[in-house]
Amino acid sequence: MRKFLVYVCLLVLVVLQVQVSAQDDLIPFPGVHTECDYDLTGETITFYHFGDLSGPLGAITGPIVLAYDDALAYLNENGILCGATIDYVNEDTGGDRERTQATYDRFTSEYDNLMMLGLYASDDAELLRDQLAEDEIPVLISAGSVPGLYGEDGQSPGWIYATNPLYVDQLGTFCQFVVANPDTFVEPVIGYLGWPNAFGQAAFTPEAVGYCESLGIGFIATPELFSPAEPDIIVNVQNLVDAGANILYVNALGPNGPGKVAQAMADLGIEGEVALAGVNWVMDISTGFTSQGPTRADTGLPVIDGMYGSVPFAWWTETSNPSIQFLTQQATLNERAGNVRGVTYLLTWANIDLQVEVLIQTINRVGGIENLTGAALKETLDNIVYEPLGGLFTADWNGGESRDVSNNRIAVMHFLNATGDGLATSRDDAFVVEGAGLLVPIIVPLTELQDVPDLRPGGADVPADE
Questions:
Q1: Which of 138, 149, 178, 343 has its CA 20 to 30 A from that of 413?
Q2: pTM reported for the whole predicted model
Q3: How far is it, in rounded angstroms, from Cα 13 to Cα 341?
């Protein structure tokens, strides 16, 4: 709310798509990599990744491939991985478990140099967790279910490293925010909605629910799970509201997640009475662009206006951040549209840069690329402390004791006003993209980064009776 100048910058970047042409204007790479002990000029190193690009997650995973194209083009042109050329191999699994398993089997049988992997979804992490450990292949992922990262007991760190906080811990952070703002959340009661998969149910655990209740927040005992293919979920929302919920917390994404919940809220006429919130993926800019149909009766703005969520990394509107300055320019140079500039594009660039640093440190330590192994890469991941792109977030897995990053903050989604210097208060004073009729979503951080509560089974912040 307090940094309106950033909205002007976002307007210029997202709507007007300013072009950068002069070489003198190029922003230097903000990452600070370990110095290379070995010259890898002439070598080709392949990054492998696969996951759902066309199924339920497709609304948000689409920018992954675009980010790979942009990042590798830049890294290769500038020789950032010790002069090596970076290539990538990926495959779309459509969110189908059988296709995911088949892809993993094919990748591990065909590619002898597969020593590290990128995955997209909690469901894939849970499916492949034991196989990855057996094959000694570490994984970077931007997802966070407890079983995928820590096993069924919640205390067994595996070979999968998440670059965002656990979803249960994100819910715990939101509950802290709720109790810190009693004037906004009066007698709060949370109702949980999610997809019927590992991601959708990841935050609804006895530990997370018990933690929120221990803070004085009511919690509806039964979650409402819905398929992304459901035409509407008005019954699910009605069930929670009838049970007393005045906050709807969503573990789903895009128009088939919070967008559907917003539509149901509008249909029921409860958008002024019930708050909407969710995991970090609800805050993706694609949600703001694709969920503008249902509008509030009082303001005419989309019901998604005022939605709360986690933002555990630097955001596009924080234009003083060197990482954001660099990524904004790269997205502009590559003519990436406004709806690409969201969570996925940011985190994909970050995970690629993190993988580069892991490779450099490991190759230095083992004495050359010919001695590289998955186990050696895992050792580096266990001990690394690195800020991808110079400050998007901090990758630190506590000497191998954790598998998710530990910082989070809460933000809110609003829309830009017509003059580009603040937030729209109604449809009449909102900026509308000419020709598209779309409003420009704005993500506004409300809190500073803070340590998340540990709400794994047996976690340090789990109430004793849980």
A1: 149
A2: 0.93
A3: 10
